[in-house]
Amino acid sequence: MADRLFAEAELREMEKRSLDRLTEAIDAGDTQKAKQIAQRMYNEFTSMHDLYRDWTTATLSAVGRRFGDAALEEVMTEGVKAWWTPNLEKMAQGSPTLQQRIKMFVAGLRGHLQPMHIEEDDEKVVIQMRPCGSGGRLVLEGKYEGPNAFLTIEKPQRMTYNRANFPVYCAHEPPMEMVDIEKNGAPFVVVEPAAVLGKEHCSFIIYKDKSKVPEKYYERLGLKKPEAVK
């Protein structure tokens, strides 16, 4: 068939998952090919990650522009509940240790495909993506600039940690804390946003004793720290 684009063997190879091709290369001892496929997998996953990142941010931008901040926060919170609540429940299944829960959380962040820096002291564990694989990279890539810019939330309010000119994607972090506080009385993780979002690193902070989560993290959400966790 002179008009065919691919040989039969090429079609069969194209059908395979990258994971299967990587495993085959490792089993065959072909380290160079394995490295090439691993890099290809990374590129594939990053492309898909950024597709959904941009799709989500464009949708949230449209909601905010058409219906205002109150509707945006409501939609943002419902969206967060859909994925964060099951993750909180998963991290609580089987009475895991705090060490195991932190590892699970870090595994989730690893899905953003960027390097991380993690520090621990007697009180807490602090995690940074360097750079942030989602909200931070949107800023670095100039996605909040120009005629097709995503929405920047102008007014300081709860979903912006009371900061002005806040990138809409990053506004999912306050609802994460709200949902956790409503469900469990205290947040598993709080975010300390960078002074210059995207250009500096935000911190995910996990306090080893939930009673030690400072009151300021409740107050910025318009809440009072429950007596049960003081």
In short:
The protein has 230 residues and is of the alpha+beta class. It has helices spanning 8-15, 18-27, 31-67, 69-92, 98-110, 135-140, 173-184, 216-219; strands at 116-120, 124-129, 152-153, 166-167, 190-192, 203-207.
- Share of helix, binned: 40-55%
Oligomeric state of the chains in view: single chain
- Number of discrete domains: 1
Spell out the helices and strands N to C.
HHHHHEEHEEHEEH
Which spans have pLDDT < 50 for at least 5 consecutive residues? Answer: none
- Major sheet: arrangement of strands: 1-2-6-5
Strand content: 5-15%
Average pLDDT works out at: 96
Biggest sheet character: 4 strands, antiparallel
Topology:
Blueprint: H1 8-15, H2 18-27, H3 31-67, H4 69-92, H5 98-110, E1 116-120, E2 124-129, H6 135-140, E3 152-153, E4 166-167, H7 173-184, E5 190-192, E6 203-207, H8 216-219
Antiparallel strand pairs: 1-2, 2-6, 3-4, 5-6
Helix pairs in contact: 2-3, 3-4, 4-7
